[in-house]
């Protein structure tokens, strides 16, 4: 379906976008089109959110579908639900676009099974940085409401949100469009054949022209593209050479929080936390003798470059790694910059659900012709020895 052919249905008026989404989900549950819903709920202390799988419709009263901040990435919630395989029950999840995109990547990696999931997303204005939210939950909620009204991130938002281009209509089954519309209006838009069927069963016919809303989204995207270009130029200068890399990660305490918070780092045991990565003390002393001294714990830079090599093709620039860093290293800015380059090399967009496998999982002769030549040379050498 091309953008110009895309149509939406108008959801009944509600106080604000989150309420309209809740009304939609109540209808879904009443019509028994889903067995359960996954949504954020405020934790009892009120200073954070948790993902809750709920099938009691009354719990929807306390849910916050468009939450101000992201303590745990939604793709991790979906992974914990479906890692073993798809269940028989239908579950609808409402998440930020970067959460749905990470779920798509995890599907390609066999970690999420979306067969019986309906994935819904919405126009995301940005998310408040976790530490700022924890420091002042009420103030952050107020700032987030303003972000929703303006459709733009402010200073309280994660830095990566300022240059995220994929904040709307990105390969979910259902999308809720509200940016640029009046408070009382929201579009529900099918994004897949599964989503179209679901809306049809719900009695919602997508017949409304979306061009005015789409124009507003395109304008916001243009602004984000510009911001992305200048952010990457700045990061490129900071990261120049090994000294640049060492300086950006100079304060790293090696806690690996960035890896634990990342939705894409799914290994149950990371190499860098395994016994294999443990160093022989004599080897370390020899290295210290050679260089005059080495910093401990060792391998902090190798940890970051290793993680880049493992997952930058799938990085969705969600910013969770920066939120998790106790010493304020701009991890997400660095990883987004590197991801932009690796993904452009393979003409790949992380989170796209177009049937394309992850690059490097399937070798195509047309990509990286230099590598193809190397493979040919190696094959010729092997044959000459046979
Ligand atoms: S590396 Fe950081 S920005 Fe990229 S997906 Fe992981 S947590 Fe998100
Ligand atoms: S969270 Fe920060 S300090 Fe911890 S390993 Fe990652 S970059 Fe280093």
Describe this structure in words.
- This protein has a domain at 3-230.
- The protein is of the alpha/beta class and 386 residues long.
- Helices cover 43% and strands 10% of the residues.
- The radius of gyration is 23 Å and the shape is globular.
- The site of one iron/sulfur cluster (SF4) has 14 residues, from helix 12 and helix 13.
Order of helices and strands: EHEEHEHEHHEEHEHHHHHHHH
* Class per helix and strand makeup: alpha/beta
Helical content class: 40-55%
What's the N-to-C terminus distance? 52 Å
Number of strands: 8
Mean pLDDT: 91
Assembly category: single chain
Shape: globular
Bound molecules: iron/sulfur cluster
SS field, number of helical segments? 14
In short:
This protein is α/β, with parallel strands linked by helices and 386 residues long. The protein is built from 14 helices and eight strands.
């Amino acid at each position: 379906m091309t953008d110009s052919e895309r149509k939406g249905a108008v959801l009944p008026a509600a106080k604000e976008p989150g309420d309209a989404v809740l009304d939609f989900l109540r209808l879904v549950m009443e019509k028994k089109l889903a067995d359960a819903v996954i949504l954020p709920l405020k934790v009892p202390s009120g200073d954070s959110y948790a993902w809750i799988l709920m099938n009691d419709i009354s719990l929807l009263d306390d849910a916050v579908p468009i939450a101000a901040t992201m303590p745990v990435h939604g793709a991790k919630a979906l992974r914990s639900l479906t890692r073993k395989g798809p269940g028989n029950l239908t579950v609808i999840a409402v998440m930020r676009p970067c959460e749905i995109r990470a779920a798509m990547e995890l599907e390609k990696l066999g970690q999420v099974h979306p067969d019986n999931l309906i994935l819904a997303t919405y126009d995301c204005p940005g998310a408040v940085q976790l530490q700022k939210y924890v420091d002042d939950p009420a103030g952050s909620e107020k700032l987030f409401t303003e972000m929703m009204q303006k459709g733009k991130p402010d200073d309280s938002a994660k830095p990566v949100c300022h240059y995220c281009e994929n904040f709307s209509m990105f390969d979910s089954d259902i999308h809720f469009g509200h940016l640029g519309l009046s408070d009382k209006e929201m579009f529900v838009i099918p994004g897949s054949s599964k989503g179209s069927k679901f809306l049809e069963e719900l009695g919602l016919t997508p017949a409304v022209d979306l061009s005015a809303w789409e124009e507003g989204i395109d304008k916001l995207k243009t602004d984000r593209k510009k911001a992305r270009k200048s952010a990457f130029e700045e990061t490129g200068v900071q990261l120049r050479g090994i000294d640049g890399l060492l300086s950006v990660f100079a304060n790293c305490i090696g806690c690996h929080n960035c890896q634990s918070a990342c939705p894409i780092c799914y290994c149950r045991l990371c190499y860098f936390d395994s016994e294999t990565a443990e160093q022989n003390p004599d080897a370390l002393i020899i290295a210290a003798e050679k260089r005059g001294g080495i910093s401990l714990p060792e391998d902090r830079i190798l940890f970051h470059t290793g993680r880049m090599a493992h997952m930058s093709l799938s990085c969705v620039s969600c910013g969770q790694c920066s939120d998790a860093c106790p010493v304020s290293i701009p991890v997400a800015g660095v990883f987004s910059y590197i991801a932009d380059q690796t993904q452009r090399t393979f003409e790949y967009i992380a989170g796209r659900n177009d049937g394309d496998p992850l690059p490097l999982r399937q070798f195509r002769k047309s990509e990286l012709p230099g590598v193809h030549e190397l493979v040919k040379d190696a094959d010729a050498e092997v044959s000459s020895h046979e």
